[in-house]
Design brief:
Blueprint: E1 17-21, E2 24-31, E3 38-42, H1 56-61, E4 65-69, H2 88-101, E5 107-112, H3 115-125, E6 130-136, H4 152-159, H5 163-170, H6 179-182, H7 189-196, H8 206-213, H9 224-232, E7 242-246, H10 255-264, E8 269-273, H11 281-284, H12 286-300
Parallel strand pairs: 3-4, 3-5, 5-6, 6-7, 7-8
Antiparallel strand pairs: 1-2, 2-4
Length: 305
Amino acid sequence: MPERPDWLDSLYPWTQARLWVNGRRMAYLDEGPRTGRPVLLLHGNPTWSFLYRDFVRPLTAAGYRVVAPDCIGSGYSDKPRVDASYSLAHHIADLASLVDQLDLRSFAIVGQDWGGPQGVGAALQRLDRLAALVLMNTWLDTDYRGRFHTSPRPWTTWHAPIIGPFFLKRRKTLSHGGPSRTTRRGMSAGEIAGYHHVYDEPDSETVTLTWPRTIPMRPGDRGWADMSMIQSRLGELASTPIQILWAPEDQVFPIEYASRMKEQLPHAEGPKTYDKAAHFLQDDRGPEIAADVVAFLDRVVGVVA
C-alpha cells in the first residue's frame, strides 16, 4: 500500500481503517454515528473512495454512518499483482466479509460502475440486512451491451493480449486517466493527483486492466455466471426501496442502460438525470447528488437502522 501524502489531507481529511478480507487488507472509511444507518459508498474502475469525498459530510451530518471501502486492487487497499485475484466473485465476497466483520445491519448501498454489480451481488448474499439501494451509471445483467462495450476503440483494444497491457499497465491509460479525462466540471491539479497517485507504484494498476476484461460479453466469459446470478435474482429486490440516478452524457453507460435497469426494477424511483456530468457523476455533480441521496434515504428508511 502506498504511503499517504500530507497534501491529500485538504481534499480527503478522513483517516481510513483497514481489515482483512479473504486474505487481503481492505482500506475503508467509517465516519458518522455508530448508531446511524450504515450507507456503503461503492466505487468502480479506476477510482477509489476519494470519488465520494463530497458525500461524506452531507450523509454524516444527516445522521448516517458512512462506510466507503477501497476495492481490493484500488486506493489504499492491497494490490495483488495476480489477475485471478480480481474476479467479480472475489469482489462480492470481499464486500460480504466487510459487512460481516463490521456487523452492518439494515444498511443502504450507493453503487456506481462496478459498485453496482459488486454491491448488489453482496447485498443478495446478505439480503436480510439490506434496507435500500441507490444505483448510478452501472449495469446488472448480461443481456444488453452498448456501443462503448462493442467498439474496437477502446474496448476491444483493451482486451488484446499485447496492446491491452501496453495501454492499461505501461501507459496507465485508465489508472492515470479516467476521471481527469472525462470530467465535465474540470479538476484542480490536486484533485487529479488525488485520483491517480494511488497507482503511481509500478505494476500497481492490475485491477484497472482486469476489471474491463471481467465484463462478460458471451456465455463462458469470466464473470458471466456471477452476473447471470445477479440478474436472475433481481426479483428478490422487489420490496427494497431503490433510487436510480444517471448522467446521460456518460459514454460508458448511457441512458439506455438506465432504461434497461428500470425494466428490471420497475418499482425503482427514477431515473433522475443530471446534465453536465459524465461517467464519474459523483465528481461532476457531487453535492447535488449527495443531497438527493440523503433526501431519498430520509424518506424511505430514515437514519435509524
